[in-house]
Specification:
By secondary structure, the protein is of the alpha/beta class. 39% of the residues lie in helices and 15% in strands. It folds into two domains: 200 residues, NAD(P)-binding Rossmann-like Domain (Rossmann fold, 3-Layer(aba) Sandwich), CATH 3.40.50.720; 95 residues, UDP-galactose 4-epimerase, domain 1. The longest helix has 22 residues. It is globular and about 55 Å long. The protein starts with a strand and ends in a 6-residue tail after the last helix. 49% of the residues are buried.
Length: 323
């Protein structure tokens, strides 16, 4: 039975990846940070099937010990300060978790289990002010936030440890991926949750920032499969993962509000607070290499994804609202 160690197991991707690996017969160990509360909402249904180990991306000893103890075959580094907006108000902390934390994970693997295969959760935010469209593995990076800058560092340190020390280390450049388990601060979930609450009479309006930004939004469940495939290759390499289609925040609003029978123009209010100091205007992936070499294809399209999220939010809120 192969063993996988996942940092960020309590997050959206960690929970889908844990499910995916358990189904494949893996022993799954999740790294969790010590806290006086237990943020296990997303893995509550798996809690009897995964093992949790206390460690922190800010603490080298704890990471080296966790890797040494479990001797994983695969390490998935999904933990980060992952919200772009917060990276302007907490730029140094973002760098500690999202950039230097990756070096600490790589050091832990190099010291304690150098044969383990390592996956780094890289991000389309590294393309930022895009230098070509669609974006592929060779597109130059131009990050536009402290988060994006930290992810560029994390990408290159992963490549560097592969080239310097011969680690099987890969960087998966994933475009935005969403699900009913997406955090409420991200725009897809904010919109599906907002539309449902308005429909149920629990809110009157939805305040958003830039409606013209465009993203390549896929389904998180499809993307964890790509992570795993990247670690099953003969040689480690980096891959772009996305759908190849792009939608604006405005189109997202239209789709989500239509799913509850409303017109978004009656409820969405633009609010300066949600605009960003520097914006990523357009992201769209060219996932040709992943299709060719990993045999990976996204299964869930944008409209189906948003419909699923709206239905999940409806189930969650319905007991509170007036129908
Ligand atoms: P990101 O691509 O990782 O930054 O994912 P987000 O879901 O946080 O944001 C996607 C896009 O939606 C960005 O271009 C934001 O500027 C835009 N957006 C517009 N209004 C909002 C909002 O109220 N919240 C968030 N999170 N994003 C918004």
């Amino acid at each position: 039975m192969p063993t996988a160690l996942i940092s960020g197991i309590t997050g959206q991707d960690g929970s889908y990846l844990a499910e995916f690996l358990l189904d494949k017969g893996y022993r799954v160990i999740g790294i969790v940070r010590r806290s006086s509360t237990t943020p296990y909402e997303r893995i509550a249904h798996l809690i009897d099937r995964v093992e949790l180990v206390s460690a922190d991306l800010l603490d080298q000893t704890s990471l080296t010990d966790a890797v040494g103890l479990y001797q994983p075959d695969e390490v998935y580094n999904l933990a980060a300060q992952s919200f772009v907006q917060t990276s302007w108000s907490q730029p140094v902390l973002t760098g500690e978790f999202t950039a230097l934390g990756v070096t600490r994970m790589l050091e832990a693997v190099k010291k304690a289990a150098p044969k383990a295969r390592f996956y780094q959760a890289s991000s389309s935010e590294m393309f930022g002010k895009v230098q070509e469209s669609p974006q592929r593995e060779t597109t130059p990076f131009y990050p536009r936030s402290p988060y994006g800058v930290a992810k560029v560092y994390a990408h290159w340190i992963t490549v560097n440890y592969r080239e310097s020390f011969g680690l099987y280390a890969v960087s998966g450049i994933l475009f935005n991926h969403e699900s009913p388990r997406r955090g409420l601060e991200f725009v897809t979930r904010k919109v599906t949750d907002g539309a449902v609450r308005i429909k149920l009479g629990l809110a009157r309006e939805l305040r958003l920032g830039n409606l013209e930004a465009r993203r390549d939004w896929g389904y998180a469940g499809d993307y964890v499969d790509a992570m795993w495939r990247m670690l099953q290759q003969d040689t480690p390499d980096d891959y772009v993962i996305g759908t190849g289609k792009t939608w604006s925040v405005r189109q997202l609003c239209d789709t989500a509000f239509r799913a509850v029978g409303l017109d978004y123009r009656d409820y969405v209010v633009q609010d300066e607070r949600f605009f960003r100091p520097a914006e990523v205007d357009l992201l769209v992936a060219d996932p040709a290499k992943a299709r060719r070499q990993l045999g990976w294809e996204p299964q869930v399209g944008f409209e189906e994804l948003i419909d699923t999220m709206v239905r999940a939010d409806m189930d969650r809120h319905a007991p509170l609202g007036r129908k």
